[in-house]
Amino acid sequence: MLFEALAVPACHMASTALLALCSTGAFTGLAVEAGAGVCHATPIYAGHSWHEATFRLDVAGSTLSRYLRELLVSGFPYLQQQALSRKAITQLKKRCCYVSLDFERDLQNPARHHPASFLMSNGCSVHLSSERFLCPEPIFQPGLVGQAEPGLHVLAFQALQKTPETLRERLAHTVVLAGGSTLFPGFPERLEKELEAQCQCHGFTALRPHLVANPRRGTAVWTGGSMVASLCSFQRSWMTRGMYQECGSRLVHEVFD
Length: 257
Fold this sequence. Notes:
With 257 residues, the protein is of the alpha+beta class. 39% of the residues lie in helices and 14% in strands. A hairpin with a 4-residue loop joins strand 2 and strand 3 (39-45).
C-alpha cells in the first residue's frame, strides 16, 4: 500500500515499544504502553523486542470511555435520555478522572472522594464523585469490565519474570510509560506501587522497579520515531521504493523480521 498506492520513497517498520523507549534515550528497559485500544508490557534489550515475554491487555482508553458512560448513565438517569457523545465522554475522562492509590479504601470511604463538576456541551452539569477514580481502575482490575485477564501491573511483572535473571534488574531499572491512558493523575505512582508489590510477593526482593513517566508520554512513540529517524546510522535501515520494485513484497519480511 505504501509503495504502490501512496508512492512513498522509503519506509521502515519499528516496534512501538522500542520507539517509546527511544523517546527517553534508552535502548534497554521495559515499555509499558496504555493507549486507546490496547495495553502492552514489552521488554526491550539492546534495541530488540522480547516477543516471548511480551504481554497484552485488551482494556485501554476506549474501554474506559465506555465504562465511564455506563457509570454516568447508572448514576445520573436523566442523562440516559440524552446523547452522550464520544467527544464529551473523552473530555470528561481526561479532565476529571484520576487513578486511586488505594482503591478499596477510597471506594468504601466517601470522605476520601474528591467531587468535581463538569459542564457538558448541552448545558447540563454532571457532578462526579467515585466515578472519577472508578473510570481508570479497569486497567488494574479488568474484572470491573468483565475481563478475566490480569491487570497491567501483573502483566508488567510477568514480562520481567519471563526474561533471563541476569537482565531483570537492568530492565526493571527503566520502566518507560507510554500512551494517552497513562496520563491519568496517579497512574505512575499506582503502577510503581503495584509492580513493587508483585516483586515482593513473588520473592523478587532484589528488583526495584524505576518508572520513567515523561510529561509528554502520550506521544512518546511519535517522539521516539522522529528521534530514531534523524540518526545517521538509521539511514541504512530504510526499505526504499526501488528495493521494493526490484524484489517485491517478500523483501518486507527479509528486512524487518
